[in-house]
Amino acid sequence: MVKALSVVQTPSFKKTVKTLKPNQQQGLDTVIKKLMTQPTLGEPKKSDLAFMRVYKFKMNNQLTLLGYRFDDGCLVLELIALRGARKLLS
Q1: How far is residue 74 CA from its own chain's centroid?
Q2: CATH homologous superfamily of domain 6-89?
Q3: DSSP SS3 for 1
Q4: pLDDT above 60 for 32
Q5: What are the b/e assignments for 20-48, b being 16+ CB within 10 Å?
Q6: Structural domain boundaries of the chain?
Q7: DSSP characters for 57-84?
Q8: What is the pTM of this model?
């Protein structure tokens, strides 16, 4: 099994995380730790976003999507998918 050795956050991802409440940040940390041990948990995207995977989880009873990519032992977190599913659909 492949594990992520490090996590890289884009500047925009860091900015978004700062806006989360402490309990939301704690939940996100749990998800990131899970992805570090099993980077293939998320679903691969298609077409132009084929380089990215998306992991779906609940945050405060709202479906949240976390976009990431896994390159050479490094888990790279992307901002574009840390959003509630309702925002993505509208």
Answers
A1: 13
A2: RelE-like (3.30.2310.20)
A3: coil
A4: yes
A5: eeeeeeebbeebbeebeeebeebeeeeee
A6: 6-89
A7: EEETTEEEEEEEEEETTEEEEEEEEEEE
A8: 0.76
